[in-house]
Amino acid sequence: MTRAKIELGDVTPHNIKQLKKLNTVVFPVSYNDKFYKDVLEAGELAKLAYYNDIVVGAVCCRIDTSDNSRRLYIMTLGCLYPYRRLGIGTLMVEHVLKYVEQDGNFDSIFLHVQVNNEGAIDFYKKFGFEIVETKEHYYKRIEPADAHVLQKTIREPQTTAPLVNGSVPHAKTNGHD
Predict the structure, then answer these.
(1) Catalytic amino acids?
(2) Which residue, 85, 144, 149, 167, is the most exposed by fewest CB within 10 angstroms?
(3) Global pTM?
């Protein structure tokens, strides 16, 4: 038996409809045209997953610069049910982790997961993600409407901001100044 070929490919105007169809099947929420327009401009942050040249999964991310930090937000990461547990999701998460590592300038990676999706929660925990918050009524048209925020910290955000003249505030020491 030959081994299955699993690989990631770019999202392009020629295959964006496959991404739309995949997301419709995999996720209980729908995404608007702006989502797909942004995905086309996302480069390495949006990938289709192929199993023997058939699109079976996808990952779509964006850079989030709110809260005084630079974070990668996984908007979607999903795989068709018959192709789960074959390493496709792992390949997609590893792609994201590699991107973040090569960039070297991210504080964390985060995503939202429906609170009852234990399979997804366990999957992300294997990669060092932790539940850091639960947002009530996050989803508008599905039940349960609550979502966990899962996060993997890459580095602690900077807590001391430089003063106006460029110097850093004096840190407290152990009393031996």
Answers:
(1) 73, 112
(2) 167
(3) 0.86
Sequence-distant (6+) residues with CB within 8 A of 40 are 11, 12, 13, 16, 46
Residue with tokens 């610069």: 65
Task: Looking at the chain, list the stretches that DSSP marks H as alpha helix, in order from N- to C-terminal side.
Answer: 16-26, 33-40, 88-103, 118-125
Rounded Cα–Cα distance for residues 30 and 75 (Å): 12
**Angle in degrees, 0-180, between the axes of helices 16-26 and 33-40, rounded to the nearest 10:** 130
Q: CB-based burial of residue 80 (10 Å sphere; 0-12 exposed, 13-18 middle, 19+ buried)?
A: middle
Quote the Cα angle for 89-122-114, to 5°: 90
pLDDT in tens, 52-84: 999 999 999 999 998 789 999 999 999 999 999
Do the Cβ atoms of 71 and 109 come closer than 8 Å? yes
Residue pair 55/15 in contact by the 8 Å Cβ criterion: yes
- List all residues 6 or more positions away from 71 whose beta carbon is below 8 Å from its beta carbon: 63, 64, 65, 106, 107, 108, 109, 110
Name the β-bridge partners of 163. none
Which amino acid, 42?
A
